[in-house]
Design goal:
The structure is a single chain. The protein is α/β, with parallel strands linked by helices. The protein is 50% helix and 14% strand. The protein contains 19 helices and 17 strands. A hairpin with a 4-residue loop joins strand 5 and strand 6.
Length: 518
């Protein structure tokens, strides 16, 4: 039987600088979801990559005395190195400077122009270079960029624009009739109220909005979008109008389809298999582009919309958003050198609530590593393996000697499996990890309840002692399987140490000298 395809992507990392731990959180989150889906029988395709065009890139390259291509090559290599260090199981790493992507973006731009969705005009307004965003004076906050709070500059240039309003009704209707399209739900209301709906429609129910969109009475505040630039050169050229380059969002967002073989003229078999995407995993700061611009581009291309956009919260350093200018940036490779990559994966996945920002500091990672990984988890593995070696020469067998406390342990394992599955179906990854840890906490309690060291003193208790150790190893085996999407290296080490791979039915044979898990 063919496996059901599952296409998951992250936002592509902007190549202005080395990604910090907040950027890395997103890729680890998506990787945990991808690994979980593979584990549960899906044919997963996981895409990530780098966004490499734009004015900011050109300016950084000029300041460094190198070409933009050299700059993005350097940063893309750093991104890939960190993703690989963190054991990310991506299937495709796309770069927006890839020849295939650039060619397809040009074809997309031409198609949208020829069918009347893109027109040429002149832009005059305020421009934020770091965000690569245009703003009208009324959109500014205290005269500054509403997204990042930095200075904006007047800009006037010839540009192509996309007719966003043409598809606004269809977009609102889709959002209001597909409750899982935007997750968490709070992001949906933010997008509708802040960026889509005219004031008189704010606060109306989904049913009312969908009806108004369908009968043509809906009013929105969506403005046409600038989709080309002439004030810089580092971008994909508009192939029918010299001097224009495709503006960053039309270029970058298209990676989700070009990377799987989309072609305006003849989409590949892989594209037909994978599209629409099951989920785009993106930061809450760029969810607007993914739930407004991207769906409208897809509608114009006649393509179905992604099934879900998951806008995850931020990982803050000491309560603040990470920024080089603030000097509060942490990097995954630096943390991994001290704590190990799986400990870093565990921290960022465990400390991020579904709908609220999380916090990271060196001290917090250290505390969590000591309490959860070393004490609760690591000590459980070490004690169980050591007792199995000490009392039975490394092999514990299922003797069929059951007591009520054994049933309690088994029930805890079954409940954890169900709870983890329910959490992962909702992308509540921290809750899934808590479910796995419930196994380890219960197993530690089980050791105290069964007192193997006392059983070992009674020759008549040998069968019961073997059963207790077997039950502990079985629990570790089940726990390691559930843990593998989140901490793949540690899960593999546990499997090796307790002999779960290719084991003899009814027994576990552990290693003599267990490795350090982290």
């Amino acid at each position: 039987m063919d496996k059901k395809p599952y296409y998951i992507s992250t936002a592509i990392a902007y190549t202005s600088a080395k990604p910090h731990i907040g950027n890395t959180y997103e890729i680890v989150l998506a990787d945990a979801i991808a690994r979980y889906k593979r584990m549960t029988g899906y044919d997963v395709y996981f895409q990530t990559g780098t966004d490499e065009h734009g004015q900011k890139i050109q300016e950084k390259a000029e300041a460094a005395g190198i070409t933009p291509q050299q700059h993005v090559d350097n940063v893309a290599a750093q991104v890939k190195e960190i993703w690989d260090l963190m054991n990310i199981s991506y299937d495709k790493f796309i770069r927006t400077t890839d020849g295939y992507h650039e060619k397809q973006v040009q074809k997309i731009f031409r198609k949208l122009y020829e069918q009347g969705d893109i027109y040429k005009s002149t832009y005059e307004g305020m421009y934020c270079t770091p965000c690569e965003s245009f703003w009208t004076p009324s959109q500014l906050v205290d005269g500054k960029c509403p997204d990042c709070g930095r200075e904006v500059k007047p800009a006037k240039e010839e540009a192509y624009f996309f007719k966003m309003g043409k598809y606004a009704d269809r977009l609102v209707e889709h959002i209001c009739t597909h409750p899982d399209f935007i997750r968490p739900a709070s992001r949906k209301h933010e997008m509708l109220n802040n960026f889509l709906l005219a004031d008189e429609f704010i606060g109306k129910s989904d049913k009312e909005l969908a009806a108004a969109a369908k009968d043509g009475t809906l009013k929105t505040k969506l403005q046409d979008l600038c989709v080309s630039r002439t004030s810089f050169k580092w971008g994909i050229p508009v192939d029918f109008d010299a001097g224009h380059v495709v503006y960053v969002w039309l270029d970058a967002l298209a990676n989700y389809i070009t990377g799987i073989g989309y072609d305006v003229d003849s989409p590949s078999g892989q594209f037909k298999k994978l599209w629409p995407a099951d989920v785009h995993v993106v930061g809450k700061d760029i969810i607007r582009f993914h739930v407004i611009y991207w769906p409208i581009f897809l509608m114009a291309l006649g393509l179905p919309l992604p099934k879900q956009i998951f806008g995850h919260p931020w990982l803050l350093q000491g309560g603040d958003k990470m920024s080089k200018s603030k000097g509060n940036v942490l990097y995954a490779d630096d943390l991994a050198k001290i704590f190990g990559k799986d400990a870093v994966r565990y921290y960022v996945l465990h400390e991020m609530p579904f709908d609220q920002d999380g916090t990271i500091t060196w001290e917090l990672v250290c505390d969590r590593t000591n309490s959860d990984l070393a004490n609760t988890f690591g000590n459980l593995v070490k004690r169980t393996v050591s007792m199995t070696n000490m009392y039975f020469g490394g092999t514990a067998e299922d003797k069929g000697v059951s007591e009520e406390v054994d049933d309690s342990l088994k029930s805890a394992v079954c409940a954890a499996r169900d709870n983890a599955a329910a959490a992962m179906d909702k992308f509540c990854v921290a809750d899934a990890l808590d479910a796995v840890w419930a196994i380890f906490r219960r197993a530690n309690k089980y050791i105290d309840e069964t007192t193997p060291w006392i059983l070992a003193k009674d020759e008549g208790g040998r069968a019961r002692l073997s059963q207790v150790l077997y039950n502990l190893l079985k629990s570790l085996d089940e726990g390691a399987k559930l843990l593998s999407p989140f901490m793949p290296a540690a899960a593999a080490k546990i499997a090796a140490e307790i002999g779960s791979v290719g084991k003899k039915e009814g027994s576990y044979t552990v290693t003599e000298n267990p490795e350090t898990l982290f």
